[in-house]
């Protein structure tokens, strides 16, 4: 089993306002729905929110903007980390003057 992955070998999944690279999943040994990847948010407006049956954690790598978790909105910049609890809508948008926001994300079973 290959316990690692290189982003350059992954095709991005393109969605409204952002694109994502799913890096680690069950094919790499993750269990119970655990997976991780990198997403890049390119829009100055919130894209349609994500919502999942598990929790999703984020770490901002590049860019500045805003995140919305449920009804709470807050600033994001490099080194800010946050979590979207299971069943809670969440979305990220970049500032108009910012480069795209790059985040590392992971899903974990609850």
Cα shape? globular
What is the mean predicted local confidence, pLDDT?
Answer: 96
Question: What is the fold named in CATH at topology level?
Answer: Jelly Rolls
CATH class: Mainly Beta
Give the topology string: H per helix, E per strand: EEEEEEEEE
Number of DSSP E strands: 9
Structural class: mainly beta
Uncertain residue segments: none
Tell me the fraction of residues in β-strands, as a range: over 45%
Query: CATH homologous superfamily name?
Result: Jelly Rolls
Q: Give the second-level CATH assignment, the architecture.
A: Sandwich
How big is the Rg?
Answer: 14 Å
Please tally the helical runs, counting DSSP H or I stretches of 4 or more residues: 0
In percent, how helical is the residue content?
under 10%
Task: Give the terminus-to-terminus CA distance.
Answer: 25 Å
Strand arrangement, largest sheet? 1-2-3-9-4-7
Characterization of the model:
The protein is mainly beta and 110 residues long. The protein has one domain: Jelly Rolls (Sandwich), CATH 2.60.120.10. It is built from no helices and nine strands. The protein has a six-stranded antiparallel β-sheet with strand order 1-2-3-9-4-7, with no helix packed on it. Strands 6-5-8 form a three-stranded antiparallel β-sheet, with no helix packed on it. A hairpin with a 2-residue loop joins strand 5 and strand 6. The chain starts with 12 loop residues before the first strand and ends with a strand.
